[in-house]
Amino acid sequence: MDYKAVWHEEAIQDLKQLDKVRQKAIVEKVKTYLVKDPLNIGKPLKGQFKGLYRLRFEDYTVVYAVDREDMKVIVARVKHRKDVYGK
After folding, report:
1. For the domain with range 4-80, which CATH number is right: 3.40.718.10, 1.10.10.10, 3.30.2310.20, 3.40.50.1980?
2. Is residue 87's pLDDT more than 80?
3. Count of CB atoms situated within 10 Å of the CB of 48
4. DSSP annotation of 55
5. Interhelix angle for 20-32 vs 9-16, to 10°?
6. What's the CA gap between 45 and 85, in Å, rounded?
7. What are 31-67's pLDDT values in tens digits?
8. Domain extents in the chain
């Protein structure tokens, strides 16, 4: 059974800063690929980001949380991989 993708407001704002082609590609990747098995597809993060996961797509990183109980993938951020974690 697939998880449901839920987009946090910050992730939506991140997407709006990208060109339409890239927006569509990232949304499709989340909706058709990530929701299948988010715990094994993404990589768990460490340190202050513990409990979150990441999925790399081209030069971008999708940071998300997984709600196993409600079967949801909560997309928190979509940023260029050099900017995603903040320096």
Report:
1. 3.30.2310.20
2. no
3. 9
4. E
5. 140
6. 11
7. 999 999 999 999 999 999 999 999 999 999 999 999 9
8. 4-80
Alpha helices in 33-69 (DSSP H): 38-41
Distance, in Å, from the CA atom of 40 to the CA atom of 73, rounded to the nearest integer, reads 13
Residue 83 has pLDDT above 90, yes or no: no
Whole-angstrom distance, CA of residue 66 vs CA of residue 5 = 10
d(CA 67, CA 56): 20
Nearest to 38 by CA among 13, 85, 74: 74
Which has more confidence, 72 or 87? 72
Structure tokens at 56: 């790399």
